Fold these 2 entries.
Entry 1:
Amino acid sequence: MIGVQNVTKYYGQVCALDDVSFTVKSGEIVGLLGPNGSGKTTLMRILTGFFPATEGSVHVAGLDVATSSLEVRNRLGYLPENVVLYPDMSVRAFLHFCARVKIDGAVQRRTNVERVLSECALEPMAHRQMGTLSKGYRQRVGLAQALLGNPEVLILDEPTVGLDPNQVIDIRELIKGLGGKATILLSSHILHEVELMCERVVIIDKGRILAEDTTDRLSERIQGAATVRVRASGPHSDILHALRALKAVEQVIKHDEESDGPEGAVLTVRSSNQDIAREIAQTIIQNGWALHELRPVTLDLEALFVRLTREEQKEAA
């Protein structure tokens, strides 16, 4: 649904994007992450036809953005980083104005406006002038106009910025509910929100893609080994010996502070074998011990982001 192929963008002599390529499948929610100045907003503006790439190609909904810009814009909704609104217009009047640009038919326009007012919890503010709104409500208006017309593709630049915690939860659930119905590419500095909303992440820094995958698979690649948490009942020393004897196990750590006496040993197992969990389960069960917990331990998105961007900084130094 979104295809970015070898995109490079120069501002004069400054390279903002350097040979960027990635795809977003139909119905997928993908997070675009990067520090300030990484090229996220530039990339989103190219995707929406705001300005062209210097080199490379971009396709949205099967259409080339460079040659079919108007058709692409008819199929997508865009929430820019800085929402520009008309301060003297009411929220409802502004949404009707946007709907006239996007949607044919008065009935369909009215239906769409009322739908997005409800979805973005803007009904109490519908008659308020936008110049009197808080930043959080202005952000909601920006998201509401992006949702008009049920676009196939949504490009959302910092969709939850300026919202209070309850508003963030509401918008997060709204965006997650759109998954499968619309293809969504969103950027955010709130890494926890991205982790909750997105199926995959694309991490960009200094105009180049550093990584593209699910957080679990990125964690495995960066850690270089499978890490598994185990909780089992049985003689602690025997469990330790049995797990350390498994082929490809590199380290077994016993967490004394969590292990409750003679039963319930809590261990962390590191192995070069990505399928080590199966062998651990078989070993514990075959020895007649009780297996209470067996789960992978992965880096969270914040740790992945910091690790990748700091390694990039070290390589550039």
Note: The chain is about 40% helix and 30% strand.
Entry 2:
Amino acid sequence: MDFIPYKPQRFTEDQMRQRISDMLEKMHDRRSVREFSSDPVPLDVVRKCIEVAGTAPSGAHKQPWTFCLVTDPVIRKEIRKAAEEEEFINYKGRMSDEWLEDLKQFNTNHVKPFIENAPGLIIVFKHSYEKSEEGKKSNYYVNESVGIAVGMLLTALHEVGLVALTHTPSPMNFLAKILERPENERAYLNIPFGYPSDDCMVPNIERKSIDKILKEY
């Protein structure tokens, strides 16, 4: 492995405070959206957002992820059908009473129209291992690595004015089957994206304050 000089931009303390204040204000506006406009989005921009996700750190720099950009309406219809079948079972038996009670305030159920209404999906797959001519090769900290990449992807989508939803119709084995992904890839997350509908509504939530999430030692 070769090493190269690294000299990232350094800001004054005032510049640092202003930049992070601006970012925090912007990110406070980020919300999970289930009501999408059918308006098309520039896919070249979405691809750049996925490139941003691909800059995430990963265990031993294995980059154990694949991002499937799905806009084909036929495929999305098939995904919706399979997802709703799993979600129906979840809501009718897999989920605990406590879980269902916690979800009541959000008015969610097994019906997932956003899979078809959104102009596209980004389905993230994690690589449990890598395949090579020599056989299987290990990946490390896969869930952590892919989780960081997804966080960066959501931030990038918000940065360009798009909305998204993190959807986990667990179990998600059907996604690998529909998209014909190799056996070393496991579905991690389904992310519908687009613009919000004109009549979009989101829950009036409050985020925990800094004193609730930060402990200094």
Note: The mean pLDDT is 95.
